[in-house]
UniProtKB/TrEMBL annotation, chain A:
Topology term for the membrane: Multi-pass membrane protein
Keyword Membrane tagged: yes
GO cellular component, one term: plasma membrane
Name of the molecule in the record: Na+/H+ antiporter subunit C
Residues passing through the membrane, by range: 12-28, 40-66, 171-192
Region (Disordered): 77-98
InterPro entries: CPA3_antiporter_subunitC, NUOK/Mnh_C1-like
UniProt keyword Membrane present: yes
Recorded family membership: Belongs to the CPA3 antiporters (TC 2.A.63) subunit C family.
Keywords, sorted A to Z: Cell membrane, Membrane, Transmembrane, Transmembrane helix
Coiled coil segments of this chain: none
Subcellular location: Cell membrane
UniProtKB/TrEMBL annotation, chain B:
InterPro entries assigned to the protein according to its UniProt record, in alphabetical order: ComplexI-like_HydComp, ND/Mrp_TM
Gene Ontology MF terms: oxidoreductase activity
PANTHER family found in the cross-reference section: HYDROGENASE-4 COMPONENT F, NADH-UBIQUINONE_PLASTOQUINONE
GO cellular component annotations of the record: plasma membrane
Chief localization: membrane
UniProt keyword Transmembrane, yes or no: yes
Name by which UniProt lists this protein: Na(+)/H(+) antiporter subunit D
Source taxonomy: Bacteria, Pseudomonadati, Pseudomonadota, Alphaproteobacteria, Parvularculales
Calcium in keyword set: no
UniProtKB/TrEMBL annotation, chain C:
Basic and acidic residues composition-biased segments: 99-110
Region (Disordered): 90-110
Organism: Aquisalinus flavus
Domain of life: Bacteria
Record-given protein name: Uncharacterized protein
Annotated TM spans: 27-51, 63-83
Automatic annotation (TrEMBL), chain D:
The NADH:quinone oxidoreductase/Mrp antiporter transmembrane domain, residue ranges: 141-423
Transmembrane portions of the chain: 6-27, 34-57, 86-108, 120-139, 145-163, 175-198, 218-242, 254-275, 287-309, 387-407, 427-448
Protein name: Cation:proton antiporter
GO CC field: plasma membrane
């Protein structure tokens, strides 16, 4: 049962790995440049899924402060400085991500049971299991700095009772998607140019022509003839 | 700029190197030759201004640091000064000899080469020595290439590899020394550490020196490269590299016992090769190697007399060997060939060159009144005094070898006898060549007649009387009876010239089986590689085909364009990394 | 000492140089034999007169150096010959003969 | 940081070329984009020099992007930070310095090799590539490295493909590089994702704090992905196959620029990750270092052997670059201050060497239209300045004294002797020497062709390369000699940089 749980609990990894391997295999085995790019895309997509899945929890909401947050005058300062981003990124995320029971690869909280009331369960390995820490952190910072921070600490404490999805991986992968698009565009553009220059986008024919250009002899004489002499 | 450059530029050798670069830019052979000679004289004047100093109290100049290591650009003591003076004389003779015939490359590289040799013997620390060691190696390669033939190119490549290899051994040894002690000073070392174990650093340095000194089995570059150079180039080559190594051995390993054995083997083994070789400059090269054995023996004995003998013999050897190479160069210039089989009777057309060759033969065999007599006697006496009988016998044998190789082969067979077709040449050597040869011959005579002139320059004050009756009688007996035997053998048809062709040496090992093995390995690796890659592809394809029937025949089997290959390789590397990571501990 | 049975190239009659004249050859032979005899005799006399200072017992022999010269010469002659027979290969063994020819580099060198 | 008036300094090396790049696109083809790019590279070079000086004097500099630094009481910053210590200050200066010489050089070469109308696009891509390389080096944020890596890579693919006008193989070379580069970068992202999952931070220094003592499957897998990904971009030996063609068919100026900078930046990233981020507490590091020894040595020999037999000088130099990367890996693999310093020194010196060599070849390509060995026959008579420049920098590659190559080799040997690895130090040193011999062979072959081969009889007379190209090339050649005498800059900075790297990794001394 443990094994099944282990496997099922990490199904997002399996999807990611399978997709990645399919993509890589296409890159390895396909001889057509366009298909190679398709494989490359699949390969990159698997990484997108990986990133998205590690940041997502079922029942989690977007990282927007919920509840009574009154200190409007200090909103920007408070938000930007610590209460949310810092608290989440440094303490909550770090400790939360790593499973308490010492399993190497944390199972994803997609499958973990999330209590309906929003009160985080102490055992579930979610991103936001540490409201106490967050509250303490916020309170600790607030005290002795500025009285207006009291309200911030208050808000953070309330916020901690809501389950947030970690936005950072999603933001990161947005960047990666942009990069992926650029790569695909450039790859396809190159394929077009190759087609113009060589008249083909089949890799073995390209290789035969390059080989001929470099060494002056056909790469595979018998094959070259059988195919009507690509070189 | 740093004080390193300031230190280096005080070294006359460095200045000569700079002069070499400038000479490369001058137009016209005459102008280049004049500039070269002026530079040599100027730099010698600089050296002379530094004076000299006894062995135990050297004068150090041009101290600087290079990333924390102490460098001493110049060390003046009697050992370094005598070698530097010798190299200046040799450089001057070379410049005169090549007045009309040195190409731009040879004129310039010859100066750089001489400068590197001078800088090397003046260097006060191992790093500076290495700097000049490498410069000498690299500049001399161009002189080998100056031969201009494709064979010269290939020989030059081999020469380059072995010379740079010698440098690398030296560099590794120096690096190890510095890592172990932090000291860079170039002083006497020992191959055995204090606890009796092998001193690896010293051994590496020893090997580095040994390659250039032509130790047996490490010598093959010498007879390989020297005969390929041009007439002018061979003279330059004969002077510097090997003698620089002799200096380094004398400085670093005096009294190292193994040197006696090595020297004895060198002295004897190479006279046989010299007797068997057919190219006359190859004969000279082997003979040079045999003479180096004398010096190596002397350094190995390590007494004051023996070191003096080795240095004195190095001095004489540069002059007379250079003279013989000059004579052969003159023959090459006029007759166009140096194959022994094609030459005889040249004395009719080239009497003066023949005379020079004769003087060279008298000097190298050690006939009294010539330099070789006094310098050889010192080493032989030292071997005798310290009762190294094997060394002593080897040196005697080497003397007889010189009678055959130089007296008979170089002088008699080439210049005497009936005139061969190739010997019908238009005239004697060109004037500058004759002048250079005459000057060299004069030095041989002066040193032979007035040896105290040389002895005053030697490292140690040692009162040695060369002209005693027993030296005269024994030496003359040795030479005359050897000559008699060769003459009788010729008279009765027992001796013949060696066969025409190439003489195999140690280099055969890497030039034939080595090359075949390398080609085999390359081809085998390529084939195995190909098979592996296709095997993987085929395996993967079969697997996939078994799993999905949808896979068409145009699939993975047919292709080998690198993208897939690289991607697969990346995946394999990643997989290995992951496996190793997970299994590692 | 200018007898040469093995001059490989063409022997030309009528082109006898200074050293090839029969009288000259005889003089050279006589000179060589005479000086051999003189130095052998001097060696023996030197032993008696106490000129010689042998290093070992071996070179205490009166004509040791003469013998050594002759023996080594004989060994060397034979050894060189054998070595030449054993190790000499045709000139094109390593490189093609064309490698030895020098392309004209426009510098007008030999 | 407390350097008055220079608060914004660390961000400038990235911002200046990044802002300048799109402006280039608007210019008229011809001289203007080139002059603009050159100016930008010079300004950037000055900025990096100031930065290097600031770091040398005041210690590491941190710069929080948009003021999103670490709040009080917190160790980790919220936003992206730039973190400059001596190690990356050195690499930054190197990249900008090379750019400030290669950009002016590029003018004639680009005019002859690239369609005139494309020149603005060319210089735009070049500046973007420049930005990316600087960004990778300067940033202290692991994900930001990926972004800049891809910025530089994407523009590099385009730049290489522009060589297609001379030889269409540039296109396939570029395509190969694109596929491989993308796979490498993606591996890197996966690795970063795993690390983020384990620690919740992307800041390199903070990553190190969080990773301390953590050693589980996830961190290890992350390590493997990151090293493989960067190893690919670095052309570490079994992953090098994209490099030779890419360097060979790219426009000459691009070959010179990339050979001198791109792989060097990757070496820095490897160093940063191995020592600063993972550090010596990370048990697997030792395994990786051992692997690097083997890969380094294999690379040194394999690539040098291939280089000896190449008939195209550009390809020969490209393979030589792969071999030289072997030296750098070897230095890293010692895991000591001396070893890492030797590696950094070689990064610097090899950049000078390869820039000079590729610039020389570029001059030949400009005048003779080919980089095959045949074009080099008798070059010393036809283009003496170029030929002698090539010879001197070639000697530097071999490691001859009086050139910087010697310093590299010496430092590497010295470091090898002070290290205990599973291969005896002596053997390593001898192997370094032996591979130098191979370098001597291929450089010797080139030198022979240039100096002693006769000029082909039917050859038309050629002029020397334009002054601009010759001067810039000779600046690099003279730098090869200058930095032999002026070792404070390289050895001094590199040693302190290595100390800093290993100190943050807490590995200084005998942890390894």
């Amino acid at each position: 049962m443990d094994i099944i749980e282990f496997i099922v609990g990490r199904y997002n990894y399996w999807i990611f790995i399978t997709l990645m391997m399919i993509g890589l295999y296409i890159v390895i085995s396909r001889g057509n440049l366009i298909k190679t790019i398709v494989g490359l895309n699949l390969f990159q997509t698997s990484v997108f899924i990986f990133y998205i899945s590690i940041g997502k929890i079922v029942g989690g909401t977007a990282p927007i402060l919920v509840g009574s947050y009154k200190a409007d005058d200090s909103y920007g300062e408070g938000y930007g400085d610590e209460s949310h981003g810092a608290g989440e990124q440094t303490s909550g995320a770090r400790e939360g991500l790593h499973d308490a029971d010492g399993l190497d690869i944390p199972s994803n909280s997609l499958s973990a049971e999330v209590p309906a009331g929003g009160a985080p369960s102490a055992v579930s390995g979610s991103l936001h299991q540490m409201p106490d820490t967050a509250r303490e952190t916020a309170a600790g910072m607030a005290s002795g700095v500025n009285a207006t921070y009291d309200s911030v600490a208050d808000a953070a404490a309330q916020g901690a009772e809501v389950i947030y999805t970690n936005p950072l991986p999603h933001v990161l992968i947005l960047t990666a998607i942009v990069v992926g698009v650029a790569t695909t565009a450039l790859g396809l553009a190159l394929a077009v140019r190759i087609r113009e220059a060589y008249g083909t986008i089949e890799e073995d024919e390209l290789e035969a022509e390059d080989h001929f250009a470099e060494f002056g002899v056909p790469l595979h004489p018998e094959q070259g003839q059988a195919r009507g002499g690509a070189a | 700029m740093s004080d390193l450059l300031a230190g280096l530029i005080q070294n006359p050798g460095m200045l000569l190197i700079v002069a070499g670069v400038i000479v490369a830019l001058l137009p016209g052979r005459q102008l280049r030759a004049i500039a070269a000679l002026a530079a040599i004289i100027g730099c010698y004047a600089l050296l002379a201004s530094y004076g000299t100093a006894p062995m135990d109290a050297p004068v150090l100049m041009g101290e600087s640091t290079l990333f924390g290591l102490d460098l001493v650009s110049i060390r003046i003591d009697r050992l370094s000064v005598v070698f530097a003076t010798l190299f200046f004389i040799a450089a001057g003779l070379n410049a005169i000899y090549g007045w009309l015939h040195a190409s731009r490359m040879e004129a310039s590289m010859g100066l750089i080469y001489a400068g590197a040799a001078i800088g090397g013997v003046l260097a006060g620390d191992l790093l500076t020595l290495f700097i000049f060691w490498e410069l000498a190696a690299l500049s001399s390669v161009f002189i080998v290439w100056g031969g201009g033939t494709h064979a010269a190119f290939k020989a030059g490549m081999r020469y380059l590899v072995i010379q740079v290899g010698s440098g690398m051994a030296l560099m590794a040894g120096v690096a190890l020394t510095v890592a172990a002690t932090g000291e860079t000073a170039f002083t006497a070392m020992s191959l055995t550490a204090e606890d009796g174990s092998l001193n690896i650093a010293a051994l590496l340095i020893f090997i580095g020196f040994g390659v250039k000194a032509g130790f047996p089995l490490l010598h093959f570059w010498l007879p390989d490269a020297y005969p390929r150079a041009s007439a002018v180039g061979a003279v330059m080559l004969s002077a510097f590299t090997t003698k620089m190594a002799i200096y380094a051995l004398a400085r670093g390993f005096p009294g190292e016992d193994i040197l006696m054995l090595i020297g004895a083997v060198m002295a004897v083994a190479f006279i046989f090769f010299g007797a068997a070789a057919s190219d006359l400059r190859r004969v000279l090269a082997y003979s040079l190697n045999s003479q180096l054995g004398f010096m190596v023996c002397g350094i190995g004995i390590g007494s004051e007399l023996a070191i003096n003998g080795a240095v004195a013999h190095a001095f004489a050897s540069v002059i007379y060997k250079g003279m013989l190479f000059m004579a052969m160069g003159a023959v090459l210039t006029r007759a166009g060939t140096l194959r022994a089989a094609h030459l005889s009777g040249l004395y009719r057309a080239m009497p003066l060159t023949a005379l020079v060759a004769f003087i060279g033969a008298l000097t190298i065999t050690g006939v009294p009144l010539f330099a070789g007599f006094v310098t050889k006697s010192m080493t032989i006496s030292a071997a005798g005094y310290y009762e190294h009988m094997l060394v002593w016998l080897a040196l005697i044998a080497a003397t007889v070898g010189a009678v055959n190789n130089i007296g008979v082969r170089i002088f008699h067979d080439t210049f005497m006898g009936a005139r061969s077709d190739a010997a019908k040449v238009s005239g004697d050597a060109p004037l500058p060549m004759l002048i250079a040869m005459a000057l060299a011959a004069a030095i041989c005579l002066v040193v032979g007649i007035q040896p105290t002139l040389l002895w005053s320059m030697l490292p140690f004050d040692y009162d040695y009387a060369a002209y005693t009756m027993d030296h005269l009688i024994t030496q003359m007996q040795l030479i005359l009876f050897a000559v008699l035997l060769f003459a009788l053998a010729r008279r009765f048809g027992l001796a013949a010239r060696p066969r025409d062709g190439v003489l195999l040496d140690v280099d055969w090992l890497y030039r034939v089986p080595g090359r075949i093995a390398l080609a085999g390995v390359v081809r085998g690796t390529a084939a195995a590689w190909h098979r592996l890659w296709w095997g993987i592809q085929a395996g993967v394809a079969r697997l996939v085909k078994g799993l999905y029937d949808t896979h068409g025949p145009e699939g993975a089997l047919a292709r080998s364009w690198p993208v897939g290959f690289m991607a697969l390789f990346t995946a394999v590397v990643l997989g290995l990394m992951l496996i190793v990571t997970f299994v590692a501990y | 000492m200018s007898d040469n049975h093995h001059t490989p190239a063409s022997e030309e009659t009528g082109d006898t140089g200074f050293f090839e004249k029969p009288g000259m050859r005889k003089i050279l032979w006589v000179a060589l034999l005479a000086s051999c005899a003189i130095f052998a005799a001097l060696g023996i006399y030197g032993m008696v007169a106490g000129w010689m200072h042998p290093y070992f017992t071996l070179d205490g022999l009166p004509v040791f150096y003469a013998l050594a010269g002759a023996i080594v010469a004989a060994v060397l002659g034979a050894g060189g010959r054998l070595l030449s027979e054993a190790l000499t290969k045709p000139s094109d063994y390593y490189d093609s003969p064309a490698d030895e020819t020098r392309p004209d580099d426009g510098e007008g060198r030999p | 940081m407390a350097i008055p008036g220079l608060e914004q300094l660390p961000v400038l090396p990235v911002v200046i070329p990044l802002v300048a790049a799109p402006l280039t696109l608007l210019m008229k083809p011809g001289r203007a984009p080139w002059a603009w790019a050159t100016l930008v590279s010079w300004v950037t070079f000055v900025v990096t020099l100031l930065l290097l000086e600031a770091v040398w004097v005041h210690g590491p500099v941190e710069y929080a992007m948009g003021g999103w630094g670490a709040p009080e009481g917190m160790s980790a910053p919220i936003g992206i930070t730039y973190y400059v210590d001596l190690a990356n200050a050195l690499v930054l200066t190197l990249v900008a310095g090379i750019a400030s010489v290669v950009f002016p050089y590029a003018y004639y070469s680009v005019e002859s090799e690239i369609d005139h109308r494309q020149t603005p696009a060319f210089y735009t891509a070049l500046l973007i590539c420049f930005t990316g390389l600087l960004g990778v080096t300067i940033t202290g944020d692991a994900f930001n490295v990926f972004v800049f890596l891809e910025i530089s890579s994407l523009s590099t693919y385009a730049l290489i493909a522009m060589g297609a006008r001379n030889d269409r193989r540039a296109l396939t070379a570029s395509f190969n590089y694109l596929v491989m580069g993308t796979i490498g970068a993606t591996f890197y992202v996966i690795g970063i994702g795993l690390l983020y999952q384990a620690t919740g931070t992307l800041n390199m220094l903070d990553l190190h704090q969080q990773l301390m003592g953590q050693s589980n499957r996830m961190v290890e897998a992350g390590f493997a992905f990151i090293i493989t990904g960067i190893g690919l971009k670095l052309a570490m030996v079994p992953l090098h196959l994209w490099l030779p063609n890419a360097y060979c068919y790219a426009p000459s100026a691009i070959s010179a620029f990339l050979a001198a900078t791109a792989t060097k930046v990757q070496v820095y990233i490897i160093l940063r990750f191995m020592f600063s981020v993972f550090g010596f507490e990370f048990a697997f590091l030792e395994v990786a270092l051992n692997a690097f020894i083997v890969l380094g040595i294999v690379g040194m020999f394999y690539a040098s052997f291939v280089a000896v037999f190449r008939d195209n000088v550009k390809q020969m130099l490209a393979y030589s670059s792969i071999a030289q990367i072997g030296y750098m890996l070897l230095g890293i693999s010692f895991g000591t201050v001396d070893g890492v310093a030797a590696s950094l020194i070689h990064v610097f010196n090899h950049a000078l060497i390869k820039a000079a060599l590729f610039m020389g070849v570029g001059c030949v390509v400009l005048r003779l239209g080919s980089s095959n060995f045949a074009a080099f026959n008798g070059l010393a008579k036809r283009m003496p300045w170029t030929a002698w420049g090539l010879i001197i920098s070639g000697l530097s590659l071999v490691g001859v004294p009086l050139t910087v190559g010697f310093i590299s080799k010496w430092k590497l040997m010295e470091a090898a002797f002070q290290t205990q690895t599973f291969i005896p130090p002596l053997l390593i040193v001898l192997l370094i020497g032996a591979s130098s011999l191979l370098a001597a062979i291929y450089i010797g072959r080139l030198a022979y062709a240039m100096l002693l081969q006769p000029v082909p009889e039917d050859a038309e007379p050629v002029k020397e390369a334009p002054h601009l190209m010759r001067i810039t090339m000779w600046i690099m050649v003279l730098a090869n000699i200058w930095f032999f005498f002026q070792t404070d800059v390289t050895v001094g900075v590199a040693t302190r940089a290595a100390q800093a790297l290993l100190d943050t990794g807490l590995g200084y001394g005998g942890a390894y």
